[in-house]
Amino acid sequence: xxxxxxxPKVAFFDFxxxxxxxxxxxxxxxxxxxxxxxxxxxxxxxxAISEKSDSYDIAIVEGSITRDSDIPRLKKIRETAKVxxxxxxxxxxxxxxxxxxxxxxxxxxxxxxxxDPNKYExxxxxxxxxxxxxxxxxxxxxxxxxxxxRVIKNLVLDKKPDIPTYxxxxxxxxxxxxxxxxxxxxxxxxVIRAGCNARCPSNGGYCYGCRGMIPQANLKSQxxxxxxxxxxxxxxxxxxxxxxxxxxxxxxxxx
Amino acid sequence: MSTKTAEFVVTEKDLxxxxxxxxxxxxxxxxxxxxxxxxxxxxxxxxxxxxxxLPTVLPPKKFFFPQDExxxxxxxxxxxxxxxxxxxxxxxxxRPCDLNGFKILYETFADDHGDPNYLAKVxxxxxxxxxxxNTCDEDAFCFKVGAQNATQGYDLMLYKFAPTSYAVxxxxxxxxxxxxxxxITSGARGDEVAIFQAKKDAGFKNKKPFKNLSKLPExxxxxxxxxxxxxxxxxxxxxGSCVMVCPTCYCFDVTDEWxxxxxxxxxIRKWDACMLDHFAVIGSGENFRHSPTARLHHRxxxxxxxxxxxxxxxxxxxxxxxxxxxxxxxxxxxxAEAVGxxxxxxxxx
Amino acid sequence: xxxKLNIREKDTKLYLPERAKVLKIKEFTETxxxxxxxxxxxxxxxxxxxxxxxxxxxxIGEAPISISSAPSNNNRFEMCVRAVGDVTHxxxxxxxxxxxxxxxxxxxxxxxxxxxxxLGKHLLFIxxxxxxxxxxxxxxxxxxxxxxxKKISVLYGCKTSKDRVYAQELEELRKTGDNVELLETVxxxxxxxxxxxxxxxxxxxxxxxxxxxxxxxxxxxxxxYKFVLRSLLEKNLPKENIYMDMERRMKCGVGKCGHCxxxxxxxxxxxxxxxxxxVEKNENLFAMEQKMKCGHGKCGHCEIKGDTDICxxxxxxxxxxxxxxxxxx
Lengths: 255, 349, 329
Known about the structure:
The complex is a heterotrimer of chains A (255), B (349) and C (329).
Chain A (H helix, E strand, L loop, with lengths): L8 E6 L5 H6 L4 H10 L1 E4 L13 E5 L7 H11 L2 E5 L1 H4 L12 H8 L23 E3 L6 H12 L11 H7 L24 H4 L16 H10 L4 H12 L11
Parallel strand pairs in A: 1-2, 1-3, 3-4, 4-5
Chain B lengths: L7 E4 H11 L4 E8 L2 E7 L24 E8 L4 E3 L6 E6 L1 H14 L6 H8 L1 E6 L25 E7 L2 E6 L2 H10 L3 E2 L4 H12 L12 H7 L4 H9 L5 H4 L7 E7 L5 E8 L20 H20 L9 H5 L6 H7 L11
Parallel strand pairs in B: 2-6, 6-7, 7-8
Antiparallel strand pairs in B: 1-9, 1-10, 2-3, 4-5, 4-12, 8-9, 11-12
Chain C lengths: L8 H4 L5 E10 L4 E8 L12 E6 L3 E6 L9 E7 L3 H7 L6 E8 L5 H7 L3 E7 L3 H11 L8 E8 L8 H9 L4 E7 L9 E2 L16 E6 L4 H11 L7 E4 L15 E2 L2 E2 H4 L2 E3 H4 L23 E2 L3 E2 L9 H10 L1
Parallel strand pairs in C: 7-8, 7-11, 8-9, 9-10, 11-12
Antiparallel strand pairs in C: 1-2, 1-6, 2-5, 3-4, 3-6, 12-15, 13-14, 16-17
């Protein structure tokens, strides 16, 4: 039996991102949406409603922090919310936004705004947890909608959100996929967090690493494997670069 | 096996027609090809069935012990019901390695605490085995662990003694009833299994079991700290692939989940893997097998020591699936050899 | 379904929990509560001391909990639950009169053939923290019939006096007199505590025993066993006379799911009570120290859920403290 639940007030916020994860969060069947709205009160959500609110229990944050002026806003959100959730790769591990971190600021400024490189404010791309404490990380680019619903439901039920700690290989095998290495494609699946139901490898792709590394990843062995499958060190770095710049195990020397 | 006898002979054509006829009553699952993958799956027509074996990623245990299975259903007003589901199924073309796997899993799930979900599925399934004339590829080592022959785990066993003819061994009434109802057969002369066996003996001529197969538990007991464990464990990715694809791994996790409307809920068991980091963590947080080496030792020792003693045979059936799946090239066979499985002169054990 | 399944009636209920009503709740510590439950669909639980049940909160999950009451002939039983995970936190939120679900009892416990060995002997209970809960079922069985034993010594160690469970009962146990004694210690003494201070092994020299005539029964956090065992073996207690109750992540309770397996042993089947002589070579049962690297609360390898370092100075069962104390002994 379920002890009576109180509906938390939920607000969505975004920083540097495509807002695709917010869309994925409400990419629901009508019935699911009604069920979700029975569990929570959405008080701010740029993608779906026009209201804004200064009072909320759960803050769901999409996007990376790429400007110093974002920091006070993020801190305010943290102060207000009882629970802060990161939504998607940009806020969880920075991912693609961190590609610029590999370059000196003047270089990426010139590349993006060749006419006026200093016009826009931009700095090192960082994840939300590098600025404020995060309670729950929902990884993925984009997020898995089922996982998002489960996290919200579990928070309402006062249950720990169970984000897998095992790698994508588990899901690939459960789906009875032919290992993409057998097709001659290198995949980051063995060290990347599952929970996406091996979406990319199951649909003709390979794992790009958007859900971040698993705890205790055996990076040494992963590198040996990629080398065994004819990937040189530079190519291997490129594969990891796409999503994992902020992972200090992969790029210890980066900023 | 020379002690086996076939009562009947069935032609390939009659066999396939019989399976088609049986679709009236059963779902048929067999080796088939779907979107480029060879796998055991349900087929609508016997022309989808691959008669020659090719290695699959997952063993057919998934029909008895699915990746995810609801074991309990409940409602928010307190109704609770054990969900035990099984539908009539013919599992066709199961090879000796996997039949040995079925035997081991059955012994596990049919002990004093019988697992109703597993047993119900076994009860509703007619398993038709097909013997192999040779190993399926370089990675398979069924002959090393004595699993190239199966004596249990099937209801009917087929031996292809001529290009389009199978000798049929009947293991039990379930098999006999199936034959009577669906297969057009003729009486066997009596030498068919022997003819097949001669071909098989030739195929396995230079493929001998581990010299110390029966002593593996002692060998593994003595070699808990053999350098091979660290050597292989250091390379292990802890990715769980070996466990997922293993026909004799049966560990599972159990999770509870309310539907989004919080009106109905389910308790689901799903495959878990002792090679994964979280597996042996207890409530207060301690992890009893913290290192990949400790976990590898546990998994391989289950196969050749801990559970081997219980089942009276190696619990690794040498199907080679984990070898094919392991990107780090870790093989139970290599580990067994390292601890002396094939050593000529064993010091007194 | 084509035909009625031919499965044993008892097997169809293997994973089906039954209802139990919460009769009484008492708060012991900040994290531990006492529960008295009443089975609604069965006449009695029919357990032996040391067994456990799986408590179920629907939609959340199951948690293995030791039965802390002595065997009885009615449908009531007791337990002490520490809130550590989702299920146990939900159990803590229950009220008297609420219905929960249970499966069990499971495990070997202390069956009669074991407890028969104890008759006429000196029983040495060595208990750490919440370990009192599973052992209470045995202590409450032997203390009322204490004349059958040579002596009953209960050695109880906690982090601080606030962590003692069944505190009121401990006072009664202390006053029992006759051949029953209770010795307590805390790792860190606070204001009100006037008893001993130090790790549990410091109590062992205070209880003289004849090794041939004594049985030790140990329950505590995983790290405790190694050091208690060493102390007992130094005093020549035969390995066959040592019983241990050991925790693992029992999920199914019926020897299937594999989570509690330590080498060849399914703890939920062959345990949680073990005779030391039978399991001393099972390295995985005692595999705690592999996590500790630095030994002084720095490296984080032995950290539990972010708040306790096993080896940290604050903890009773702190690695370095044990090493130091052993040298002092």
